[in-house]
């Protein structure tokens, strides 16, 4: 996962369809000139987006996109004091869509939509979930420490667990992720 996330993922992310919000949304609502969106409502564009990613990278792409979106939305919602620095350093696309405003979708849709459309193997994803959760927590902790963020990994995990988005429970992959995430949360030091 580390090799894919560090090397191929940034290139794959550039291959999917990105939509720029109109000037008013970018400047006045989001206050972010670099903002771009992908996915659409409930990742309606999942088939089109994943068609741009090599088949042997698709599951890693889905997991990587979920990881960055989960962190982006967690920081935006719960730690706005860190969000500006995160945004400046990463400039990842937003998951959602724009109309007369910005509409951010539940990050757990990123795990459900490819399963819903039969674009990833749920059993394969379940098999990768323990290693993926370890990677997500380890990579996030490393990033926070390297960036000097005042956010302990235990607190980050708790923010995610307490967020309303965490109640999303469709399919087989999302519950598997949540089970592994809950298990990992029990082992984190405070």
What does this structure look like?
With 190 residues, the chain is mostly helical. It has one domain (2-184). It is 63% helix and 6% strand. The protein is built from nine helices and three strands. It has helices at 2-15, 23-30, 46-51, 58-78, 80-90, 109-116, 122-147, 153-162, 173-187; strands at 37-39, 94-98, 102-104. A three-stranded mixed beta sheet has the order 1-2-3. It is globular and about 45 Å long. The relative contact order is 0.14.
Shape field:
globular
Count of distinct structural domains: 1
- DSSP strand content: 5-15%
Provide mean pLDDT, rounded.
90
Largest sheet: 3 strands, mixed
H-E order: HHEHHHEEHHHH
Number of strands: 3
Main sheet: strand order = 1-2-3
Q: Helix fraction?
A: 55-70%
Distance between the termini: 26 Å
Measured on Cα atoms, how large is the radius of gyration?
16 Å
Poorly predicted runs are none
What is the count of helical runs? 9
- What structural class do the secondary elements suggest? mainly alpha
Short structural description:
This protein is mainly α. 63% of the residues lie in helices and 6% in strands.
Keywords:
63% helix, mainly alpha, globular, single chain, 190 residues, three-stranded mixed β-sheet
Please write out the topology:
Layout: H1 2-15, H2 23-30, E1 37-39, H3 46-51, H4 58-78, H5 80-90, E2 94-98, E3 102-104, H6 109-116, H7 122-147, H8 153-162, H9 173-187
């Amino acid at each position: 996962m580390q090799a894919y996330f560090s090397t191929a993922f940034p290139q794959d992310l550039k291959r999917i369809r990105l939509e720029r919000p109109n000037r008013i949304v970018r400047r006045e609502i989001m206050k972010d000139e670099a903002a771009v969106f992908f996915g659409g409502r409930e990742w309606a564009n999942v088939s089109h987006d994943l068609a741009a990613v090599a088949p042997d990278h698709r599951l890693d792409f889905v997991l990587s996109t979920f990881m960055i979106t989960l962190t982006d939305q967690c920081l935006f919602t719960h730690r706005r004091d860190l969000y500006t620095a995160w945004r400046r350093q990463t400039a990842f696309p937003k998951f959602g869509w724009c109309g007369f405003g910005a509409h951010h979708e539940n990050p757990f849709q990123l795990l459900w939509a490819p399963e819903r459309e039969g674009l990833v193997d749920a059993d394969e994803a379940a098999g990768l979930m323990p290693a993926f959760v370890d990677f997500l927590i380890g990579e996030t902790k490393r990033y926070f420490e390297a960036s000097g963020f005042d956010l302990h990994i235990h607190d980050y995990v708790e923010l995610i667990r307490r967020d309303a988005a965490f109640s999303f429970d469709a399919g087989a992959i999302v519950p598997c992720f949540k089970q592994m995430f809950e298990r990992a949360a029990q082992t984190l030091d405070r």
